[in-house]
Amino acid sequence: MSKTTVLAGQPEWNGQMKTRDARSKRYAFKKYRVLLIMMIPALLYVLIFNYVPIYGLLIAFEDFQVTKGFFGSPWVGFANFQKAFSDPYFYQVLKNTVLISVYRMLWGFPIPILFALLLSEVKNVRFKKAVQTASYLPHFISWIILGGIFMSIFSLEGPINAILGIFGIDPILFMADTKYFRSILVISSILASFGWSSIIYFAAITGVDPHLHEAAVVDGAGRFKRMIYITIPLLMPVISIMLVLSMSGILDAGFDQIFNMYNPQVYDVADIIDTYVYRKGLIDMDYGYATAVGLFKSGIGLILMLTANGLAKKMGGGDYTLW
Amino acid sequence: MVRSGSKIADILLYAFMTAVLVITLYPFWTQVVISLDGGDAAYSSFKLFPSKISFDSYKLAFDFDALWVGYKNTIIRTCLGVVISILATAITAYPLSKKDLPLNKWITRFMLIQFIIGGGLIPNYLLIKYLGLYNTIWALVIPGMLSTFNVLIMRNFFRSLPESLEESAMVDGAGFVRIFIRIILPLSMPIIATEALWVGVGHWNAWFDALIYTNDTNKEMLQLVLRRIIIQNNPTQFSDILTKLQDKNPYSGMQLQATVIMLSILPMLVVYPFMQKYFVKGIMVGAIKG
Questions:
Q1: Domain residues of chain A, as ranges?
Q2: Cα–Cα–Cα angle for B84, B87, B90, nearest 5°?
Q3: A291 — contact with chain B (CB < 8 Å)?
Q4: Which ipTM was obtained for this model?
Q5: Which region is the signal sequence (chain B) (predicted)?
Q6: Quick check: B113 and A51 CB within 8 A?
Q7: 3-state secondary structure of B53
Q8: Are residues B72 and B213 in the same domain?
Protein backbone atom coordinates (compact mmCIF):
# COMPACT_ATOMS: atom_id res chain seq x y z
CA MET A 1 0.00 0.00 0.00
CA SER A 2 2.65 2.44 1.06
CA LYS A 3 4.49 1.64 -2.13
CA THR A 4 1.54 2.63 -4.29
CA THR A 5 1.13 5.91 -2.46
CA VAL A 6 4.71 6.79 -3.19
CA LEU A 7 4.30 5.83 -6.80
CA ALA A 8 1.05 7.68 -6.99
CA GLY A 9 2.63 10.73 -5.48
CA GLN A 10 5.47 10.82 -7.99
CA PRO A 11 3.51 11.62 -11.16
CA GLU A 12 1.59 14.27 -9.32
CA TRP A 13 4.80 15.97 -8.32
CA ASN A 14 6.17 15.59 -11.82
CA GLY A 15 3.01 17.00 -13.27
CA GLN A 16 3.26 20.04 -11.08
CA MET A 17 6.81 20.65 -12.27
CA LYS A 18 5.70 20.29 -15.84
CA THR A 19 2.94 22.83 -15.55
CA ARG A 20 5.27 25.25 -13.84
CA ASP A 21 7.83 24.62 -16.55
CA ALA A 22 5.28 25.08 -19.29
CA ARG A 23 4.00 28.22 -17.65
CA SER A 24 7.48 29.74 -17.44
CA LYS A 25 8.07 28.74 -21.04
CA ARG A 26 4.86 30.36 -22.11
CA TYR A 27 5.88 33.40 -20.09
CA ALA A 28 9.26 33.49 -21.86
CA PHE A 29 7.56 33.30 -25.24
CA LYS A 30 5.31 36.17 -24.25
CA LYS A 31 8.12 38.22 -22.76
CA TYR A 32 10.39 37.75 -25.79
CA ARG A 33 7.63 37.92 -28.41
CA VAL A 34 9.14 41.00 -30.05
CA LEU A 35 12.62 39.50 -30.12
CA LEU A 36 11.33 36.29 -31.66
CA ILE A 37 9.68 38.33 -34.39
CA MET A 38 13.02 40.08 -34.91
CA MET A 39 14.57 36.67 -35.61
CA ILE A 40 12.19 35.86 -38.47
CA PRO A 41 14.14 37.59 -41.28
CA ALA A 42 17.33 35.82 -40.25
CA LEU A 43 15.63 32.44 -40.12
CA LEU A 44 14.10 32.99 -43.53
CA TYR A 45 17.45 34.13 -44.87
CA VAL A 46 19.27 31.06 -43.57
CA LEU A 47 16.51 28.82 -44.88
CA ILE A 48 16.56 30.32 -48.38
CA PHE A 49 20.25 31.04 -48.86
CA ASN A 50 21.82 28.22 -46.84
CA TYR A 51 19.38 25.31 -46.72
CA VAL A 52 17.73 25.60 -50.13
CA PRO A 53 21.08 25.35 -51.99
CA ILE A 54 21.92 22.28 -49.90
CA TYR A 55 18.61 20.76 -50.98
CA GLY A 56 19.55 21.84 -54.49
CA LEU A 57 22.53 19.50 -54.33
CA LEU A 58 20.05 16.88 -55.49
CA ILE A 59 20.75 18.26 -58.97
CA ALA A 60 23.83 16.07 -58.78
CA PHE A 61 21.52 13.09 -59.14
CA GLU A 62 19.52 14.57 -62.00
CA ASP A 63 20.00 15.09 -65.68
CA PHE A 64 19.25 18.74 -65.01
CA GLN A 65 17.70 20.67 -67.85
CA VAL A 66 16.99 24.37 -67.47
CA THR A 67 13.72 24.13 -69.39
CA LYS A 68 12.37 21.34 -67.16
CA GLY A 69 13.62 22.86 -63.93
CA PHE A 70 14.58 21.31 -60.63
CA PHE A 71 11.41 19.27 -60.13
CA GLY A 72 10.87 18.28 -63.76
CA SER A 73 14.35 17.06 -64.69
CA PRO A 74 14.78 13.29 -64.91
CA TRP A 75 16.37 11.46 -61.98
CA VAL A 76 19.52 9.60 -63.02
CA GLY A 77 20.87 8.31 -59.72
CA PHE A 78 24.63 8.14 -59.60
CA ALA A 79 25.14 8.53 -63.35
CA ASN A 80 26.84 11.92 -62.99
CA PHE A 81 29.26 10.51 -60.44
CA GLN A 82 29.96 7.51 -62.63
CA LYS A 83 30.66 9.84 -65.51
CA ALA A 84 33.18 11.72 -63.37
CA PHE A 85 34.85 8.63 -61.98
CA SER A 86 35.26 7.12 -65.43
CA ASP A 87 36.74 10.29 -66.91
CA PRO A 88 40.56 10.33 -66.81
CA TYR A 89 40.49 14.13 -66.86
CA PHE A 90 38.62 14.12 -63.54
CA TYR A 91 41.56 12.25 -61.97
CA GLN A 92 43.94 14.71 -63.54
CA VAL A 93 42.01 17.56 -61.93
CA LEU A 94 41.88 15.76 -58.58
CA LYS A 95 45.61 15.13 -58.75
CA ASN A 96 46.32 18.78 -59.57
CA THR A 97 44.16 19.91 -56.67
CA VAL A 98 45.86 17.67 -54.13
CA LEU A 99 49.36 18.33 -55.48
CA ILE A 100 49.01 22.10 -55.47
CA SER A 101 47.56 22.20 -52.01
CA VAL A 102 50.08 19.75 -50.57
CA TYR A 103 52.99 21.72 -52.02
CA ARG A 104 51.45 24.86 -50.68
CA MET A 105 51.11 23.32 -47.25
CA LEU A 106 54.65 21.94 -47.20
CA TRP A 107 56.11 25.40 -47.76
CA GLY A 108 53.31 27.64 -46.69
CA PHE A 109 52.79 26.06 -43.30
CA PRO A 110 56.25 26.43 -41.72
CA ILE A 111 57.09 29.83 -43.23
CA PRO A 112 54.59 31.86 -41.16
CA ILE A 113 55.82 30.12 -38.00
CA LEU A 114 59.46 30.94 -38.78
CA PHE A 115 58.50 34.47 -39.73
CA ALA A 116 56.67 34.99 -36.44
CA LEU A 117 59.49 33.46 -34.40
CA LEU A 118 62.16 35.59 -36.04
CA LEU A 119 60.21 38.82 -36.19
CA SER A 120 59.29 38.59 -32.52
CA GLU A 121 63.04 38.65 -31.78
CA VAL A 122 63.25 42.12 -33.35
CA LYS A 123 63.42 44.66 -30.54
CA ASN A 124 62.77 47.84 -32.51
CA VAL A 125 59.00 48.15 -32.23
CA ARG A 126 58.62 50.48 -35.20
CA PHE A 127 60.58 48.27 -37.56
CA LYS A 128 58.67 45.24 -36.34
CA LYS A 129 55.31 46.93 -36.93
CA ALA A 130 56.43 48.10 -40.37
CA VAL A 131 57.44 44.60 -41.47
CA GLN A 132 54.24 43.17 -40.04
CA THR A 133 52.02 45.76 -41.70
CA ALA A 134 53.75 45.30 -45.06
CA SER A 135 53.33 41.56 -44.85
CA TYR A 136 49.57 41.96 -44.34
CA LEU A 137 49.14 44.09 -47.46
CA PRO A 138 48.34 41.31 -49.96
CA HIS A 139 45.50 40.12 -47.74
CA PHE A 140 43.66 43.33 -48.54
CA ILE A 141 44.13 43.10 -52.31
CA SER A 142 42.06 40.88 -54.56
CA TRP A 143 43.61 38.04 -56.53
CA ILE A 144 42.70 39.81 -59.74
CA ILE A 145 45.26 42.49 -58.93
CA LEU A 146 47.72 40.15 -57.24
CA GLY A 147 47.43 37.78 -60.19
CA GLY A 148 48.11 40.65 -62.58
CA ILE A 149 51.15 41.76 -60.60
CA PHE A 150 52.61 38.26 -60.36
CA MET A 151 51.97 37.66 -64.04
CA SER A 152 53.88 40.81 -64.88
CA ILE A 153 56.76 39.81 -62.61
CA PHE A 154 57.03 36.38 -64.20
CA SER A 155 56.41 37.62 -67.73
CA LEU A 156 59.02 37.53 -70.49
CA GLU A 157 59.88 41.17 -69.86
CA GLY A 158 59.58 40.86 -66.10
CA PRO A 159 62.25 41.12 -63.41
CA ILE A 160 62.61 37.37 -62.84
CA ASN A 161 63.62 36.80 -66.45
CA ALA A 162 65.87 39.87 -66.22
CA ILE A 163 67.72 38.32 -63.27
CA LEU A 164 67.99 34.98 -65.07
CA GLY A 165 69.31 36.90 -68.06
CA ILE A 166 72.23 38.15 -65.97
CA PHE A 167 73.25 34.52 -65.52
CA GLY A 168 72.92 33.92 -69.23
CA ILE A 169 69.66 31.98 -69.02
CA ASP A 170 67.27 32.49 -71.91
CA PRO A 171 63.91 34.05 -71.04
CA ILE A 172 61.33 31.52 -69.90
CA LEU A 173 57.64 31.83 -70.62
CA PHE A 174 56.73 30.93 -67.03
CA MET A 175 53.00 31.51 -67.28
CA ALA A 176 52.58 29.06 -70.12
CA ASP A 177 55.08 26.41 -69.12
CA THR A 178 53.67 23.31 -67.44
CA LYS A 179 57.05 22.66 -65.82
CA TYR A 180 57.04 25.86 -63.80
CA PHE A 181 53.42 26.82 -63.44
CA ARG A 182 52.65 24.95 -60.23
CA SER A 183 55.76 26.32 -58.55
CA ILE A 184 54.71 29.82 -59.55
CA LEU A 185 51.28 29.25 -58.06
CA VAL A 186 52.80 27.99 -54.81
CA ILE A 187 55.42 30.74 -54.54
CA SER A 188 52.99 33.54 -55.26
CA SER A 189 50.35 32.16 -52.94
CA ILE A 190 52.87 31.95 -50.09
CA LEU A 191 54.16 35.46 -50.79
CA ALA A 192 50.61 36.69 -50.59
CA SER A 193 49.59 34.85 -47.46
CA PHE A 194 52.54 34.23 -45.14
CA GLY A 195 52.15 37.52 -43.26
CA TRP A 196 48.48 37.09 -42.57
CA SER A 197 48.91 33.46 -41.55
CA SER A 198 51.54 34.44 -39.01
CA ILE A 199 49.12 36.51 -36.90
CA ILE A 200 47.97 33.58 -34.84
CA TYR A 201 51.58 32.64 -34.02
CA PHE A 202 52.47 36.21 -33.10
CA ALA A 203 49.62 36.18 -30.63
CA ALA A 204 50.75 32.89 -29.15
CA ILE A 205 54.34 34.15 -28.82
CA THR A 206 53.19 37.38 -27.17
CA GLY A 207 51.16 35.26 -24.77
CA VAL A 208 54.23 33.45 -23.44
CA ASP A 209 54.81 34.31 -19.78
CA PRO A 210 57.85 36.65 -19.65
CA HIS A 211 58.89 35.12 -16.32
CA LEU A 212 59.86 31.96 -18.16
CA HIS A 213 62.30 33.94 -20.29
CA GLU A 214 63.64 35.85 -17.28
CA ALA A 215 64.27 32.63 -15.39
CA ALA A 216 66.03 31.14 -18.42
CA VAL A 217 68.20 34.26 -18.79
CA VAL A 218 69.27 33.90 -15.15
CA ASP A 219 70.23 30.32 -15.94
CA GLY A 220 72.37 31.62 -18.77
CA ALA A 221 70.24 30.59 -21.74
CA GLY A 222 70.80 32.62 -24.89
CA ARG A 223 68.11 33.77 -27.30
CA PHE A 224 68.39 30.77 -29.55
CA LYS A 225 68.14 28.35 -26.64
CA ARG A 226 65.14 30.16 -25.25
CA MET A 227 63.45 30.00 -28.63
CA ILE A 228 64.06 26.26 -28.87
CA TYR A 229 63.23 25.35 -25.28
CA ILE A 230 60.55 27.86 -24.32
CA THR A 231 58.80 29.52 -27.26
CA ILE A 232 58.53 26.57 -29.64
CA PRO A 233 57.21 24.06 -27.05
CA LEU A 234 54.62 26.60 -25.98
CA LEU A 235 53.62 27.13 -29.62
CA MET A 236 53.13 23.43 -30.22
CA PRO A 237 49.40 23.29 -29.38
CA VAL A 238 48.63 26.16 -31.78
CA ILE A 239 50.87 24.67 -34.46
CA SER A 240 49.28 21.25 -34.27
CA ILE A 241 45.78 22.65 -34.34
CA MET A 242 46.55 24.86 -37.32
CA LEU A 243 48.05 21.85 -39.07
CA VAL A 244 45.00 19.71 -38.44
CA LEU A 245 42.74 22.51 -39.62
CA SER A 246 44.72 23.06 -42.79
CA MET A 247 44.42 19.33 -43.54
CA SER A 248 40.70 19.77 -43.93
CA GLY A 249 41.30 22.26 -46.75
CA ILE A 250 43.29 19.82 -48.84
CA LEU A 251 40.83 20.07 -51.74
CA ASP A 252 40.90 23.88 -51.62
CA ALA A 253 43.82 24.66 -53.84
CA GLY A 254 42.95 28.36 -54.08
CA PHE A 255 40.26 29.07 -56.65
CA ASP A 256 40.64 32.87 -56.66
CA GLN A 257 44.33 32.68 -57.40
CA ILE A 258 44.29 29.92 -59.99
CA PHE A 259 41.21 31.18 -61.80
CA ASN A 260 42.97 34.49 -62.38
CA MET A 261 46.41 33.12 -63.20
CA TYR A 262 45.87 30.03 -65.29
CA ASN A 263 45.31 29.73 -69.04
CA PRO A 264 44.45 26.86 -71.39
CA GLN A 265 48.14 26.07 -71.98
CA VAL A 266 48.60 25.01 -68.37
CA TYR A 267 45.21 23.33 -67.70
CA ASP A 268 47.03 19.99 -67.52
CA VAL A 269 48.84 21.03 -64.36
CA ALA A 270 46.72 23.82 -62.96
CA ASP A 271 43.09 22.91 -63.50
CA ILE A 272 41.65 22.18 -60.05
CA ILE A 273 38.26 20.89 -58.93
CA ASP A 274 36.84 24.36 -58.35
CA THR A 275 37.92 25.74 -61.73
CA TYR A 276 36.72 22.53 -63.42
CA VAL A 277 33.32 22.82 -61.75
CA TYR A 278 33.09 26.43 -62.88
CA ARG A 279 33.86 25.65 -66.51
CA LYS A 280 31.72 22.50 -66.65
CA GLY A 281 28.80 24.18 -64.92
CA LEU A 282 28.66 27.79 -65.95
CA ILE A 283 30.44 27.70 -69.32
CA ASP A 284 29.37 24.29 -70.66
CA MET A 285 26.08 24.43 -68.66
CA ASP A 286 26.41 20.78 -67.68
CA TYR A 287 24.70 21.55 -64.36
CA GLY A 288 24.11 18.03 -63.08
CA TYR A 289 27.65 16.89 -63.72
CA ALA A 290 29.23 20.04 -62.26
CA THR A 291 27.09 19.75 -59.13
CA ALA A 292 28.13 16.13 -58.72
CA VAL A 293 31.81 17.02 -58.91
CA GLY A 294 31.25 19.90 -56.48
CA LEU A 295 29.35 17.62 -54.11
CA PHE A 296 32.19 15.11 -54.21
CA LYS A 297 34.55 17.88 -53.19
CA SER A 298 32.40 19.20 -50.36
CA GLY A 299 31.72 15.66 -49.16
CA ILE A 300 35.44 14.97 -48.81
CA GLY A 301 35.90 18.41 -47.25
CA LEU A 302 33.17 17.72 -44.69
CA ILE A 303 34.65 14.35 -43.73
CA LEU A 304 38.12 15.89 -43.39
CA MET A 305 36.75 18.76 -41.33
CA LEU A 306 34.89 16.50 -38.92
CA THR A 307 37.97 14.34 -38.54
CA ALA A 308 40.11 17.43 -38.02
CA ASN A 309 37.72 18.77 -35.43
CA GLY A 310 37.78 15.45 -33.59
CA LEU A 311 41.57 15.42 -33.62
CA ALA A 312 41.74 19.05 -32.47
CA LYS A 313 39.43 18.24 -29.59
CA LYS A 314 41.68 15.37 -28.56
CA MET A 315 44.84 17.45 -28.80
CA GLY A 316 43.90 20.88 -27.58
CA GLY A 317 40.70 20.41 -25.62
CA GLY A 318 37.44 22.29 -26.05
CA ASP A 319 39.00 25.71 -26.42
CA TYR A 320 40.52 24.91 -29.76
CA THR A 321 37.77 23.09 -31.59
CA LEU A 322 35.64 24.58 -34.30
CA TRP A 323 32.44 24.42 -32.27
CA MET B 1 81.16 36.54 -25.76
CA VAL B 2 77.44 36.29 -25.44
CA ARG B 3 77.12 39.93 -26.35
CA SER B 4 79.10 39.85 -29.56
CA GLY B 5 77.30 36.69 -30.66
CA SER B 6 74.02 38.35 -29.94
CA LYS B 7 75.08 41.40 -31.92
CA ILE B 8 75.89 39.37 -34.99
CA ALA B 9 72.57 37.58 -34.62
CA ASP B 10 70.87 40.95 -34.40
CA ILE B 11 72.53 42.22 -37.55
CA LEU B 12 71.58 39.05 -39.42
CA LEU B 13 68.05 39.29 -38.11
CA TYR B 14 67.60 42.88 -39.22
CA ALA B 15 69.16 42.16 -42.59
CA PHE B 16 66.85 39.19 -43.08
CA MET B 17 63.77 41.13 -42.08
CA THR B 18 64.73 43.99 -44.37
CA ALA B 19 64.96 41.44 -47.15
CA VAL B 20 61.48 40.16 -46.24
CA LEU B 21 60.19 43.72 -46.29
CA VAL B 22 61.70 44.29 -49.73
CA ILE B 23 60.34 41.01 -51.11
CA THR B 24 56.81 41.75 -49.90
CA LEU B 25 56.74 45.29 -51.19
CA TYR B 26 58.75 44.81 -54.38
CA PRO B 27 55.87 43.35 -56.46
CA PHE B 28 53.79 46.43 -55.69
CA TRP B 29 56.73 48.73 -56.24
CA THR B 30 57.29 47.33 -59.76
CA GLN B 31 53.83 48.58 -60.64
CA VAL B 32 54.65 52.06 -59.34
CA VAL B 33 57.84 52.15 -61.39
CA ILE B 34 56.26 50.82 -64.57
CA SER B 35 53.27 53.15 -64.32
CA LEU B 36 55.44 56.24 -63.83
CA ASP B 37 58.20 55.41 -66.23
CA GLY B 38 57.55 57.06 -69.56
CA GLY B 39 60.48 55.11 -70.99
CA ASP B 40 61.12 51.42 -71.04
CA ALA B 41 60.79 50.23 -67.45
CA ALA B 42 58.17 47.77 -68.56
CA TYR B 43 60.66 46.19 -70.88
CA SER B 44 64.14 46.41 -69.42
CA SER B 45 62.38 45.25 -66.32
CA PHE B 46 64.84 45.24 -63.46
CA LYS B 47 64.58 48.84 -62.45
CA LEU B 48 64.27 49.92 -58.86
CA PHE B 49 63.37 53.48 -59.80
CA PRO B 50 61.75 55.04 -62.84
CA SER B 51 64.36 56.54 -65.16
CA LYS B 52 62.15 59.55 -65.68
CA ILE B 53 58.83 60.34 -64.13
CA SER B 54 55.94 60.91 -66.45
CA PHE B 55 52.25 60.99 -65.63
CA ASP B 56 51.18 60.46 -69.24
CA SER B 57 49.50 57.15 -68.60
CA TYR B 58 47.71 58.50 -65.54
CA LYS B 59 46.41 61.41 -67.56
CA LEU B 60 45.15 59.03 -70.23
CA ALA B 61 43.63 56.63 -67.72
CA PHE B 62 41.40 59.43 -66.47
CA ASP B 63 39.62 59.23 -69.82
CA PHE B 64 38.99 55.55 -69.30
CA ASP B 65 35.30 55.72 -68.42
CA ALA B 66 34.84 52.03 -67.62
CA LEU B 67 37.25 52.40 -64.71
CA TRP B 68 35.20 55.16 -63.14
CA VAL B 69 31.92 53.38 -63.80
CA GLY B 70 33.49 50.42 -62.03
CA TYR B 71 34.55 52.62 -59.16
CA LYS B 72 31.05 54.04 -58.81
CA ASN B 73 29.42 50.60 -58.89
CA THR B 74 31.85 49.20 -56.38
CA ILE B 75 31.29 52.10 -54.01
CA ILE B 76 27.52 51.67 -54.27
CA ARG B 77 27.81 47.95 -53.73
CA THR B 78 30.11 48.33 -50.75
CA CYS B 79 27.93 50.91 -49.02
CA LEU B 80 24.69 49.04 -49.63
CA GLY B 81 26.29 45.74 -48.67
CA VAL B 82 27.68 47.09 -45.42
CA VAL B 83 24.41 48.73 -44.40
CA ILE B 84 22.15 45.75 -44.96
CA SER B 85 24.69 43.31 -43.61
CA ILE B 86 25.21 45.21 -40.36
CA LEU B 87 21.48 45.74 -39.97
CA ALA B 88 20.75 42.05 -40.48
CA THR B 89 23.57 40.98 -38.18
CA ALA B 90 22.52 43.32 -35.38
CA ILE B 91 18.83 42.42 -35.37
CA THR B 92 19.77 38.75 -35.38
CA ALA B 93 22.46 39.01 -32.73
CA TYR B 94 20.35 40.99 -30.25
CA PRO B 95 17.66 38.35 -29.62
CA LEU B 96 20.32 35.65 -29.47
CA SER B 97 22.19 37.61 -26.82
CA LYS B 98 19.35 36.77 -24.39
CA LYS B 99 20.39 33.46 -22.89
CA ASP B 100 16.83 32.61 -21.83
CA LEU B 101 15.29 33.40 -25.22
CA PRO B 102 13.05 30.44 -26.10
CA LEU B 103 14.63 28.12 -28.70
CA ASN B 104 17.88 30.08 -28.53
CA LYS B 105 20.01 26.95 -28.70
CA TRP B 106 18.02 25.53 -31.60
CA ILE B 107 18.13 28.74 -33.61
CA THR B 108 21.88 28.99 -33.13
CA ARG B 109 22.31 25.38 -34.21
CA PHE B 110 20.11 26.02 -37.23
CA MET B 111 22.41 28.88 -38.23
CA LEU B 112 25.65 26.94 -37.70
CA ILE B 113 24.99 25.11 -40.98
CA GLN B 114 27.15 27.76 -42.66
CA PHE B 115 30.21 26.32 -40.98
CA ILE B 116 29.45 22.81 -42.09
CA ILE B 117 28.28 22.65 -45.68
CA GLY B 118 26.96 24.83 -48.44
CA GLY B 119 25.22 24.13 -51.70
CA GLY B 120 28.19 25.00 -53.85
CA LEU B 121 28.40 26.89 -57.10
CA ILE B 122 25.59 25.52 -59.25
CA PRO B 123 22.70 25.35 -56.73
CA ASN B 124 23.51 28.88 -55.55
CA TYR B 125 23.67 30.13 -59.11
CA LEU B 126 20.34 28.56 -60.01
CA LEU B 127 18.76 29.91 -56.82
CA ILE B 128 19.75 33.45 -57.76
CA LYS B 129 18.19 32.93 -61.18
CA TYR B 130 14.98 31.45 -59.78
CA LEU B 131 14.63 34.29 -57.30
CA GLY B 132 14.93 36.80 -60.12
CA LEU B 133 17.96 38.44 -58.57
CA TYR B 134 20.15 37.78 -61.60
CA ASN B 135 21.80 40.90 -62.98
CA THR B 136 20.67 43.07 -60.07
CA ILE B 137 22.79 44.52 -57.32
CA TRP B 138 20.78 42.41 -54.83
CA ALA B 139 22.46 39.29 -56.16
CA LEU B 140 25.70 40.73 -54.84
CA VAL B 141 24.63 42.04 -51.45
CA ILE B 142 21.92 39.63 -50.24
CA PRO B 143 23.47 36.15 -50.56
CA GLY B 144 26.34 36.91 -48.20
CA MET B 145 24.67 39.43 -45.95
CA LEU B 146 24.28 37.30 -42.84
CA SER B 147 27.39 35.56 -41.65
CA THR B 148 26.83 33.32 -38.65
CA PHE B 149 30.38 34.02 -37.54
CA ASN B 150 29.70 37.77 -37.44
CA VAL B 151 26.37 37.19 -35.69
CA LEU B 152 28.04 35.17 -32.94
CA ILE B 153 30.75 37.77 -32.44
CA MET B 154 28.23 40.57 -32.20
CA ARG B 155 26.05 38.45 -29.89
CA ASN B 156 29.02 38.00 -27.56
CA PHE B 157 29.63 41.72 -27.57
CA PHE B 158 25.99 42.41 -26.67
CA ARG B 159 26.27 39.88 -23.86
CA SER B 160 29.28 41.70 -22.47
CA LEU B 161 27.29 44.92 -21.98
CA PRO B 162 26.13 45.46 -18.37
CA GLU B 163 22.67 44.00 -17.84
CA SER B 164 21.74 46.68 -15.33
CA LEU B 165 21.44 49.23 -18.14
CA GLU B 166 18.73 47.24 -19.83
CA GLU B 167 16.98 46.42 -16.58
CA SER B 168 16.71 50.04 -15.53
CA ALA B 169 15.41 51.01 -18.96
CA MET B 170 12.84 48.25 -18.68
CA VAL B 171 11.71 49.55 -15.30
CA ASP B 172 11.20 52.89 -16.99
CA GLY B 173 8.86 51.14 -19.40
CA ALA B 174 11.05 50.81 -22.49
CA GLY B 175 10.43 47.79 -24.71
CA PHE B 176 13.09 45.63 -26.37
CA VAL B 177 13.02 47.54 -29.64
CA ARG B 178 13.53 50.87 -27.91
CA ILE B 179 16.31 49.43 -25.73
CA PHE B 180 17.97 47.93 -28.79
CA ILE B 181 17.92 51.17 -30.76
CA ARG B 182 18.55 53.64 -27.96
CA ILE B 183 20.92 51.75 -25.68
CA ILE B 184 22.43 48.65 -27.24
CA LEU B 185 23.32 49.98 -30.70
CA PRO B 186 24.99 53.21 -29.52
CA LEU B 187 27.06 51.25 -27.01
CA SER B 188 28.06 48.71 -29.64
CA MET B 189 29.73 51.08 -32.08
CA PRO B 190 33.17 49.43 -31.64
CA ILE B 191 31.93 46.03 -32.83
CA ILE B 192 29.68 47.56 -35.48
CA ALA B 193 32.60 49.53 -36.91
CA THR B 194 34.82 46.46 -36.84
CA GLU B 195 32.32 44.26 -38.62
CA ALA B 196 31.48 47.04 -41.08
CA LEU B 197 35.15 47.09 -42.07
CA TRP B 198 35.26 43.31 -42.52
CA VAL B 199 32.16 43.32 -44.68
CA GLY B 200 33.25 46.45 -46.54
CA VAL B 201 36.66 45.14 -47.55
CA GLY B 202 35.02 41.88 -48.57
CA HIS B 203 32.64 43.73 -50.89
CA TRP B 204 35.38 45.99 -52.22
CA ASN B 205 37.46 43.01 -53.32
CA ALA B 206 34.65 40.66 -54.29
CA TRP B 207 34.56 39.75 -57.95
CA PHE B 208 33.42 36.17 -58.50
CA ASP B 209 29.78 36.79 -57.63
CA ALA B 210 29.78 39.84 -59.88
CA LEU B 211 31.30 37.73 -62.64
CA ILE B 212 28.60 35.06 -62.51
CA TYR B 213 25.56 37.08 -61.39
CA THR B 214 25.86 40.20 -63.57
CA ASN B 215 26.53 40.64 -67.25
CA ASP B 216 25.79 44.28 -67.91
CA THR B 217 28.65 46.67 -68.65
CA ASN B 218 26.87 49.50 -66.86
CA LYS B 219 26.79 47.37 -63.73
CA GLU B 220 30.38 46.16 -63.99
CA MET B 221 32.32 46.27 -60.72
CA LEU B 222 35.82 47.75 -60.50
CA GLN B 223 37.37 44.31 -59.96
CA LEU B 224 35.81 43.02 -63.17
CA VAL B 225 36.98 46.03 -65.18
CA LEU B 226 40.44 45.23 -63.86
CA ARG B 227 40.03 41.58 -64.71
CA ARG B 228 39.15 42.49 -68.28
CA ILE B 229 42.25 44.64 -68.60
CA ILE B 230 44.81 42.76 -66.53
CA ILE B 231 43.86 39.12 -66.81
CA GLN B 232 41.93 38.76 -70.02
CA ASN B 233 43.72 41.44 -72.01
CA ASN B 234 40.40 42.24 -73.54
CA PRO B 235 40.05 45.96 -73.21
CA THR B 236 37.49 47.39 -75.55
CA GLN B 237 37.58 51.08 -74.86
CA PHE B 238 41.03 50.62 -73.41
CA SER B 239 42.61 50.16 -76.84
CA ASP B 240 41.86 53.73 -77.93
CA ILE B 241 43.78 55.04 -74.97
CA LEU B 242 46.53 52.55 -75.61
CA THR B 243 47.09 53.77 -79.17
CA LYS B 244 47.32 57.33 -77.89
CA LEU B 245 50.04 56.30 -75.48
CA GLN B 246 51.86 54.08 -77.94
CA ASP B 247 53.00 57.10 -79.95
CA LYS B 248 55.25 57.95 -77.04
CA ASN B 249 56.16 54.54 -75.72
CA PRO B 250 56.17 51.19 -77.49
CA TYR B 251 55.75 49.19 -74.28
CA SER B 252 52.75 51.13 -73.06
CA GLY B 253 50.45 48.11 -72.70
CA MET B 254 52.13 47.12 -69.48
CA GLN B 255 52.47 50.73 -68.43
CA LEU B 256 48.77 51.33 -68.77
CA GLN B 257 47.97 48.09 -66.92
CA ALA B 258 50.24 49.12 -64.09
CA THR B 259 48.60 52.52 -64.01
CA VAL B 260 45.16 50.99 -63.74
CA ILE B 261 46.40 48.69 -60.96
CA MET B 262 47.80 51.68 -59.09
CA LEU B 263 44.63 53.70 -59.52
CA SER B 264 42.54 50.85 -58.18
CA ILE B 265 44.63 49.89 -55.15
CA LEU B 266 45.47 53.42 -54.06
CA PRO B 267 42.46 53.74 -51.72
CA MET B 268 43.31 50.40 -50.12
CA LEU B 269 46.99 51.31 -49.75
CA VAL B 270 46.02 54.49 -47.96
CA VAL B 271 43.54 53.03 -45.51
CA TYR B 272 44.69 49.49 -44.77
CA PRO B 273 47.55 50.38 -42.37
CA PHE B 274 44.96 52.03 -40.15
CA MET B 275 42.35 49.33 -40.30
CA GLN B 276 44.46 46.16 -40.25
CA LYS B 277 44.24 45.97 -36.47
CA TYR B 278 40.47 45.45 -36.66
CA PHE B 279 41.06 42.48 -38.93
CA VAL B 280 43.76 41.06 -36.69
CA LYS B 281 41.22 41.27 -33.85
CA GLY B 282 38.80 39.20 -35.93
CA ILE B 283 41.39 36.46 -36.40
CA MET B 284 42.03 36.37 -32.68
CA VAL B 285 38.35 36.19 -31.71
CA GLY B 286 37.75 33.54 -34.32
CA ALA B 287 40.70 31.49 -33.16
CA ILE B 288 39.58 31.40 -29.59
CA LYS B 289 36.03 30.38 -30.24
CA GLY B 290 34.15 30.37 -33.51
A1: 2-65, 79-320
A2: 145
A3: yes
A4: 0.89
A5: none
A6: yes
A7: strand
A8: yes
